[in-house]
Design a protein that fits this description.
single chain; mainly beta; 7-stranded mixed beta sheet; 4-stranded antiparallel beta sheet
Length: 125
């Protein structure tokens, strides 16, 4: 089992920035591929960003590319999502997720085995 806990969500003004963190614990003997997803009421949970085991490869949704940056610190077992130039459409519950079996960064929800509880991000307009 891998336990994931997100933090850093909150209320931000349009154009502002926010940094989300995800701390992993439990069965993390090998650093998993990590992803960020988000979900708004009435919408499917959508892919935001993902990062490879060593951090050398990343993938971003078109809606956030150029504004968001995913990074990781394997020594601390943490993954981050730096969000800049935030828009009201970014308002959602953000989830981090771990993929313990894939060999390449994937964007589909079904690839990820473990999920955090989510953290609310609200961008005011």
């Amino acid at each position: 089992q891998v336990q994931l806990v997100e933090s850093g969500g909150g209320l931000v003004q349009t154009g502002g920035s926010l940094r989300l963190s995800c701390a992993a614990s439990g069965r993390t003997f090998r650093s998993p591929i990590m992803g960020w997803f988000r979900q708004s009421p009435g919408k499917e949970r959508e892919f935001v960003a993902a990062i490879s085991r060593g951090g050398g490869s990343t993938n971003y949704a078109d809606s956030v590319a150029g504004r968001f940056t995913i990074s990781r610190d394997n020594a601390e077992k943490k993954v981050y999502l730096q969000m800049n130039s935030l828009k009201p459409d970014d308002t959602a519950v953000y989830y981090c997720a771990a993929d313990v079996q894939s060999t390449v960064v994937r964007t589909s929800r079904r690839a990820y085995n473990y999920w955090g509880q989510g953290t609310q991000v609200t961008v005011s307009s």
